[in-house]
């Protein structure tokens, strides 16, 4: 999920030779891992604050668009960061930290989704309340109020279509489009094969083609 | 530009627009202050996770009640467990190797007036039998005995439905 967090310079792409150029997040994570291993827990926690600041915004964007609920997204991101710190000694330095974090965030989001579905068995969901808020939050670059309204309606339609995608398609689409991850990164984060990721992405785009076409 | 290329370009533009809108929507919910607050919560949770869990005593409870594993208590528990074990073992042994003494015995009269039910209560009831079976045996024995004939008169008076 966090293929490229913060800035373009934060990326940790695989080079043609297969080597990994360490991203700022990977460097920081390695430092925290060594601090924790040497028993400097407080110092490690302090540095972890910087890592959180680096990855937080993109993590929230992805979690929010997957879960479609700000409170759930907040919880999922918090849980993911807590897990990262508590298991930092398991981080393998030779691999991009972003991918490892993505995997943890995906799992935290899935856990949150499961918890929510359990709750919804007993509590009636607030129908479309979230969609209405989403529409209200839709940014409008066009000053004309009429066009703004149209843009909001289109955005609401796209959001609904994305939300209606099957879980896996929605996850792949969100990671690909919101976080701009490559199929390889998505595969590493979700545990699917790159071919499966491509299939899910193709199907999602095919389904959304109609509603996306209206957007331009 | 071919029709296909045109279509792909439109989709790419649409996806770029979607991404920008999606980012803006999420950022609308999570502004800088929210991010700061979340960071603080994460670090606070980590600090708590680093501390050893404390067990808070229940207010008003005294130490002896709380401990629950004092020496006398342990002895009582061990004795109870041993007693239960021995009891179960003995029961099993008796069940596996029933001697003559444990087979159903004919009821014997115990100095009660003839005809009285008390007179035909078996002295020893088969202990390996179910209590209900034992009771039925006792009733059977009572009815078949001569002394029970006095009760027949009551039986004739009692209404009974034909089967």
Tally of helical segments of chain B:
6
Relative strand content of chain B? under 5%
Q: In CATH terms, what is the fold-level topology of the domain at 1-125 in chain A?
A: Rna Polymerase Sigma Factor, Chain: A
How much is the average pLDDT of chain A?
81
Rg estimate of chain B, integer Å: 42 Å
Q: Span from first to last CA of chain A?
A: 27 Å
Characterize the biggest β-sheet of chain A.
none
Summed up, the helix count of chain A is: 9
CATH architecture of the domain at 1-125 in chain A: Orthogonal Bundle
Shape by Cα distribution of chain B: elongated
Question: In the CATH hierarchy, what is the superfamily of the domain at 1-125 in chain A?
Answer: RNA polymerase sigma factor, region 2, helix turn helix motif
Gyration radius of chain A, rounded: 19 Å
Helical content class of chain A:
55-70%
Structural class of chain B: mainly alpha
Uncertain segments of chain B are 115-126
The biggest sheet of chain B amounts to: none
What structural keywords apply?
heterodimer, A: 216 residues, mainly alpha, Rna Polymerase Sigma Factor, Chain: A, 0% strand, disordered N terminus, B: 163 residues, 6 helices
How would you characterize the overall build of this protein?
- The complex is a heterodimer of chains A (216) and B (163).
- With 216 residues, chain A is mostly helical.
- Chain A has a domain at 1-125: RNA polymerase sigma factor, region 2, helix turn helix motif (Rna Polymerase Sigma Factor, Chain: A, Orthogonal Bundle), CATH 1.10.1740.
- Chain A is 69% helix and 0% strand.
- Chain A contains nine helices and no strands.
- In chain A, helix 1 packs across helix 2 (41-67).
- The longest helix of chain A has 27 residues, at 41-67.
- Chain A is globular.
- With 163 residues, chain B is an all-alpha fold.
- The longest helix of chain B has 27 residues, at 3-29.
- The radius of gyration of chain B is 42 Å and the shape is elongated.
- Chain B starts with a helix and ends in a 6-residue tail after the last helix.
- The model of chain B is unreliable at 115-126 (pLDDT under 50).
- The A-B interface holds A 41, 45, 48-49, 52-53, 56-57, 60-61, 64-65, 70, 73-74, 77-78, 81-82, 85-86, 134, 137-139, 155, 158, 177-178, 180, 205, 209, 212-213, 215-216 and B 10-11, 13-15, 17-30, 34-35, 38-39, 41-43, 45-47, 49-50.
